[in-house]
Amino acid sequence: MKKETLILFLLIFGLGKVGMAQKTDPDKKSDPDSSGVVSSVLLPTVAPLLLFDEEKVKEEKKEKKKNARKNIWFGIKTMRGYTRRSIRGQEYLEYFNYTDAERNPNPYIRDVYWYDPKEKAVRKEGFAKGLGYLLHGPYERLVNETVVESGMFYYGMKHKTWMVFDDRSVLQDKAHFSEGWPKESKVSYFNEASKSVEEIIPIQYGLEEGNYFHFYENQQIAVTGEYKYGEKVGLWTEYWDTKNTKAIRKREIQYQETPYTKNFRPYIRAEWDKEGNLVYRRD
After folding, report:
1. ∠ CA 164-169-172, rounded to 5°
2. How far is CA 136 from the centre of its chain?
3. What pTM value is reported for the model?
4. For residue 272, what are the β-bridge partners?
5. Rounded to an integer, what distance in angstroms lies between the CA atom of residue 212 and that of residue 226?
6. Which one, 36, 63, 187, 206, has least CB within 10 Å?
7. SS3 66
8. Where are the extended beta strands (E) located within 52-156?
9. End-to-end CA distance of the chain, in Å?
């Protein structure tokens, strides 16, 4: 009798565990492709009206030297910071200014630099309010007390002239930016007078580098993607024209994750109809 009771108890206990496992199965997650409707800081959107404002450049040149002494850059009061680390006998230093002014980074710019006070590190991905501070003002990177990179930041984005040096302080490279955009970038417009943007191709050192955007004439995003060293990488997304009411994916094309990957052929990963219903997905 005791043996039968024990068996019954084990059966009930075992079935209970199975029931619990079914309720909390971690593999049963919502399908990210089940709907083409997505939440995006870019959609609905108004495209950048003017990427390279020459008048703003002229105004910046008039900035007083006394503001630099007060750590005021582009009209914003900043604080000074630095990071230090040693790797294989070499000392790496970064000197920079940062701001606690509340401002959302430009969603069109791929690399937004910020200071992580918890880890005491400068990062260029993953910024969110409350995590750290956007770099704003002059920046220098040193290796063994020799400056190897210098430039200026504007709310986390590279701005004005950036220079790279070797360990003997010989200039190796010089690049020009305007609020995160390489000055070489190609911009085409639907209308030159209104500056309604059709396409932005980021160019640096003669190669496509950064986030790519194509717009509908109503300035809603049509295509987004990323270039690295002149090659398309990662997931490129096409969107339906919803007249700036919502963001609905039309098609996703998967490209190589790293540039110059041999024997990789791009493929369509998924497609959705105008209502956001999934119509195709590659397993």
Report:
1. 35
2. 17
3. 0.72
4. 278
5. 6
6. 206
7. helix
8. 72-73, 76-77, 79-87, 90-99, 114-116, 121-123, 133-143, 146-154
9. 54
